[in-house]
Amino acid sequence: MSARVPQPSSALSDVSHQDASSAFLNAPIGMAVVTPVGVITSCNNALTAMLGRTTDQLLGRTFFDVTHADDIPDAQQQCRFMQAGGARVLRHECRFLRADGGVLWVMVSTSRVPEVTGHPAHLIMHVEDISDRKALEAELSHRALHDLLTGLANRALLLDRITHALSLTSRTPTPTCLLFLDLNGFKGVNDTYGHSVGDRVLQQLGNRLTGLLRPQDTAARLGGDEFAVLCQDTGMEEAEGIAGRLRAAAAQPFLLDPHTVTLSAAIGIAIDTLADRPGQAAPDPEALLHQADLQMYEAKARQQSRHARRGAQSNGPAA
After folding, report:
1. Is residue 317 situated within a structural domain?
2. Residue 162 and residue 193: Cα distance in Å, rounded?
3. Is beta strand 40-43 parallel, antiparallel or unpaired with respect to 122-129?
4. Cys-Cys crosslink for 52: which of 26, 98, 219, 292, Cβ 3.0 to 4.6 Å?
5. What CATH number did the domain enclosing 266 receive?
6. Catalytic residue positions?
7. Which of 137, 160, 195 is where one domain is finished?
């Protein structure tokens, strides 16, 4: 006589259904059941809280209705790929819009559930808020390309911008201008007042440079008291005017309570134009930077020579 396999009672089945329903509604991650064409048929508490919307505001709508406009094309492509049977599980990152206008980054994991007897085909979607991770990634990316003290571009970002500018110069007659700035007497500030005061000088100078430039220009700190300014579509005459404004900005007193520091700057200018290299490839960005650096040292030598002559004249024999 064979053993009889016990069948679950209707009461046990009801409990199992209630447990599954509770697990769905109270899961710590956003969840939704969606039709194959994307219409939301049910969603849980975590998802409504994440989006700042009620269940009634989500049911009958699609996730495209709450997706950032810039991310909709990619989301639609993912949806078409899954509908065509390209994958059973897909994951992608996008931005969702909250009811209050806020934007949050999410990781959407979508599982395709095929039709079975009594249950139509549908999609299960898990939505995880990854805004904190994306913010950290953005911060790390910013730090990798910007000077931590002044917030200006660093050498790596400047070289990338120079490369882009030179590629444009290779196709159009618009010149690329690079100015190299070095503060005169900055070492004395550190030696006299300490590096914290010197840091504040550099920060103030960085703010002044930014305030003088056009949105398309790039100001960078290369290290120490050396700065560079990249200006596209700028010839020598205009570059000399910019250099004059930069020197004036550096010569303004730095108010560092209780200290006041007055410095000056030496500036070198390098210009690249298509006319200078007909039929030739764009120069290496390091080469343009080196050329501006050499011009800066020549400017510094001329300034020192003028100061020396003035000193000799003031100390000469009385007439």
Report:
1. no
2. 36
3. unpaired
4. 98
5. 3.30.70.270
6. 225
7. 137
